Each structure stands twice: as C-alpha cells, then as structure tokens.
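Q: Fold this one first, please.
A: Sequence and structure below.
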Amino acid sequence: MKTSKILPPAINSAPSCAISAIRQAKTLEISLSGDWVLDAQLPALEPILAQIETQAIEKIVVSTAALGRWDSMLVTELIKLIDYAEQKQVAVDKTSLPASIQGLLALVAAVPERVDAHREQTQRSWSQALAVSTGKAIQHGKEMLIFVGEMMISIFATLRGQAHFRRQDLWLYIQECGPSALPIVTLISLLVGLILAFVGAVQLSLFGAQIYIANLVSLGMTREMGGLMTAIIMSGRTGAAYAAQIGTMHVNSEIDALKTMNLDPMAFLVLPRMLALIIIMPLLCLYADLMGIIGGGFVTVNFFDVSLTEYLDRTAHAVKMKDFIIGFVKCSVFGILIALSGCMRGMQCGRSASAVGDAGTSAVVTAIVFIVVADSVMTIICNRLGI
C-alpha cells in the first residue's frame, strides 16, 4: 500500500483543505478534507494526476468523510479529476460523494460544452489573413444580397396585400427617428457649419474674400456635409437601435413566435423601420442644411466683418435647386443603407446578450462603410455628369 498526501500552503487567514490518495491494488482512494470553498488555498492536483498517469490504476474512489464546507470550487476540481481519469480510461466511483455534488456533476455531464465556446488565438501569415478577410467580405456580400432579396419579396407581398403591415408602427418609427433626433442633429449641424466657416475664412481672409465664406458654407452643407453628417448621426443612433431591438427579439424567440403565427418578420418588423428612415432622412437633411448655414452665418457675421444681408445674398446666389436635390437624393440613399444595415444585423443576431451588443456595433460599422462608399460613388457620378 502506497500513500501520498498533499498539504495546503501555510496561509493562516484562508480556509484549509487537503487531498490525499491511498493506493490499494489497482484502486486509488482519494480523500477530501477541510473546507473546499472559493477563498481557500487549494492543494495541487498534479501529484494525484501523476499517480493516475504512472501507476496501473483501474478505479478511483473518492471519500468525503472529512469534508467540511464546499462550494462550486470543489465541483470544479472534481470535474478536472474526472475528465483526466476518463481520458486515461480509469473508472471513477461517484457513489460515495454527497447527493448534491452528484447532482451537480450529472448536470455538467448532461450539458456538453459548446464547441465554439473558446476563441482560439492563431497566428496567421499576411496571405492567410488576406484570404480570411476576403472570404468574410464575400460572405457578408452574399448575406446582404439574400437580405435585400427577402426584403424585396416582402415589399411585393405587402403591395399585393399578402403580408401583415401595421401602419401605426410606421408612424411610431417616424416619430422615433425624426422629431426625437432633432436635438442632436441641430447641435452637430450648427457645429459643422461653424467649423466650415472658420476653415474657409483662414484662407479666404488672406485675399480679402471673406464674403465667399457664405458660398463655401452653403454649398458644402447642401451638397455634402448636411446629408453625410445626418447619416452618420442616424447610423449611430437609429441603425444601432434597430439592430438591438430586432436582436433582442431574436434572443427572446419573439421572431420565432411571429413565424409560428404565420407573420412575415420582414414585413412586420423590417419594412416599417426602413420606410420610416427613407421618409425622414431627406427632411432631416434639409433641416441640417439650414442649421449648418445658420452656424456658418454666425461665425461670418460676428468675426469677419460681413453683414447678415451680404451673407444671405451670397448664399442665395451660390445655392441652386440642384444642390438641394443632390443632397436630398444622397440622404434618401443613406437612409436605405442605414435601415438595411441595422435590420440585417438584428436579424442575423445570435441568441446571447453579448450577441446583441455585437449586432449593434456591426450595424454602425456596416452603415458608415456603406455611406462613405455610396457618397464617394455619387459624388464621382455628379462630377462626371457636370452637376
């Protein structure tokens, strides 16, 4: 008979616990003693595991006659021991354990660990990283096309009266993404107009041409900055909210319930949100243009010796109807992209709380990337067409 005992470290303040092993023939009897709680100094399991590894052990019996207090820490250590014994094809007799510990071990064994629960950190070469990134981009493109296709099917079904569409939801979403967004749109647009005026004045004042600050601010706001800044604000505010709302419904199986009731989630959840943004975005763009021109006028009139009448006159001469239409069209496209990104990420959300946060983040990033790309393409088209 061979006996080994592992004593805990000598720390007086922590509860004490110990584990010892006695070998009898081909059976290893492991005795647990003391308090196996979270703040205890646990003894190392490695000597016990080494005995299982090096000696011809066929069976393990765990004795808890001297066991004091215990919590999940004891269960964690027992799981390590049992897993190792199973790898070595050694049987573990659990019948001597308290019933509560046996119940916890049975529960752990009944719910297998998720395969993707752990993230593996792998070192990839630049070519492998490029291939992985390209594959993800292609996959995201396919997902976007599938989502747009499902959206178009829902639109046609709604037009034919074959899908359930709630008009009161549309008005609710218009209120949420329209009037509720006015304070932040006002603040950002005023500041953007103010910044444009200061940046332009630095160069124009060198030639005594401060009067043209009005041209710079008005054209900059109506053609580009008004719509672009509004889109970025709405992607962070409304796009993320759409992803979180739909993602939470996905986690709570509410979308599954809608499908069970034969309600199309695309027509019931996605279509009203998308229509609300398509309707409200051009109006917010016009409002942002106005606020930006007011911000630029405040700087020009108060700091660069230009009267309010001259500022308004130069603005009226500089801005044409086509400039408003260009900004109007751009913001409509941005609205579609924000709604698509937010709703798509929400529908693709996983079934955990962290997945909802990931969906919101992904919705904002996707929307901003699409907005910048679309704005660049439309600006090039306008330049080539001479408008």
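Q: Good. Now the second chain.
A: Here it is, same layout.
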Amino acid sequence: MADSVVRPYLKLVGAQIRSQAQYRTSFILDLLGQTVFTVLDFLTVFVVFRITPALGGFDLSEVLLISALAITGFTIADLVVGNVERLSFYVRTGLLDAMLIRPRRILPQLLAVDFQLRRIGRVALAVTVLIVAASAGVTDWTWWRVLLVVITPLTAAVFFCAVFILTATSMFWWIDAKEFSAAFTYGGRDFTTYPITVYEGVFRRLFGYLFGFGFVSYYPALSLLGRDDPLGGPGWLGWSGLIAAAVAATAAALMWRTGIRHYKGTGS
C-alpha cells in the first residue's frame, strides 16, 4: 500500500534527475555554483573571526560547529522542499490547479515537479564541514554525543522543512509573499549560524525561543561541546531540537491543510 502511494512521486523525482543529467556540463556547472553558496556561508564565519577572537563568548571552532549543524540541516531541507518557495509561480501559471485535479497529494507533487539534484553538492559540503568541526571541537566523545551529532542535522532539516512550508502557505492568501517567506527561511538560517548570545533582548526571545530557531543548533552544540549555557538554560535543552522540529512540523501540516482548503484557484 505504502509502496503504491510513494512510487508515483519517486518516478517524478527520477524523471527530473534524468532530465537534468542529460546536459552534463550544465548540471556540473550548476552543482559547482550551488556548492559555492555554501562555501560563502562558511567563509563568512572565518571573515568575522578575522576581526575578533571570540563571538558571543565562543571561539572559532565552537561557532563553526554551530554553523555546520545549522547549515547541514538547512541544505537538506532546501534539497527536499526548497521548491515549495515557488508556490506563487505555480498559482499564477495555473500549474497548482492542474495538480489539484490529479488523484495524488498536492504537496509531494509540488516537491517532485521541479526537484533540483544540483543542491546535493551543498549538502555534501555541509556534512563534510560538520564532520571536521565536530572532530575538532568535541573532545569527550560518548555514545549519546555521537547520537546527538547525527540526529541534530536531521531534526534541523525537519525544522527548516516546516519553516519552508509554513511561510510558503502564506502565498495562498498573499501571492507576493516570497520576500516575506525568504525573511524566515534564509533569515532563520543566518540566525542559527551563530550563537544566540550575539543577539539581544526582544530579537533573541522572539526568534530564538518563540519561533524556535535557538533550539536548532545552539543548544545541541552546547551539549556536544560540554559547555554550560551562558544564558542559564538547563542542559536538557541540548535535545530540544526534537521537540522544536515536532512542533514546527505539526504547525506546518495544519497550516498547509488550511491553505489548500481555502484555495479558490486562479479563476482561469
């Protein structure tokens, strides 16, 4: 039963991959171009440390671990559901209406219709940096730290997938909400790249705690490094990424269903 449900979407993704692989030179250039963006994300961290020996109370290796956890999760989410940020295009062109009349779930269709394999290079680079940063920053390896360093990028990916879908859902009511969506997706990625101790007051409480971005990489990194939270948070927050991902995924599912039910079509 499950195989019959999943197989059509896998075939759509496979068709996308084969079509992109037909033009190998273009695909390789796209792959390298996408990878460069992630290189720049990490280079930004090194540039910041050229003018300061510590950032928010953390040294370069510690910030690099926080960044690697966040960027690995984000790049996985971007690979899997990043296509959903083009929802306004699908609405305007009527493609969403065409998908709605098919006897398949609409969200997997949207994700499969323009799957971008070229983004896999960003994931590979982020995972490589994560392995290097964890090897350099974590000195006391235990079984639970190994488990934490594996599941944190995955929970971060689930969290960012939910953010992509949550913000894209706003386009059902506000068709030009792409910039609004990007403020939370790419803005959230940038927020989680650095320790939340560098942010102050309302901004930290709003994005770090209320929106949950602070639980994506900062607290798991503290547990991996064996450091106490300078903000006074308890040690169990190192595992709070699981809760944040579950809450965000539930909110995204509810918002998506609400958006689909209220969607009236393009009228064409």
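Q: Anything worth noting on the second one?
A: Residues 1-262 form one domain.
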